[in-house]
Design brief:
The chain is an alpha+beta fold and 59 residues long. It has 2 helices and 3 strands; from the N terminus they run ββαβα. The protein has one domain. 37% of the residues lie in helices and 32% in strands. The chain has a 3-stranded antiparallel β-sheet with strand order 2-1-3, with helices on one face. The N and C termini lie far apart (35 Å).
Length: 59
């Protein structure tokens, strides 16, 4: 089983990482893979608010 984690890079913007559920995302390695110097995790509530506003726009 895999989990999908979203991270925001200073240069590259949004990045999605699929990792095994029993592992931890190493942000330094994730930044290297994304070819960015710094990356930070995005809180899930950011997506919930965004999804709710999109649903309102569709109505």
């Amino acid at each position: 089983m895999f989990i999908t984690l979203m991270a925001d890079g200073k240069v590259t913007g949004l990045n999605a990482f699929a990792i095994p559920s029993n592992c931890v995302l190493d942000l330094k390695k994730a930044a290297q893979v994304a070819r960015d110097k710094y990356i930070e995790m995005i809180k899930s509530r950011y997506f919930r608010k965004r999804d709710m506003s999109m649903e309102a726009d569709l109505r």
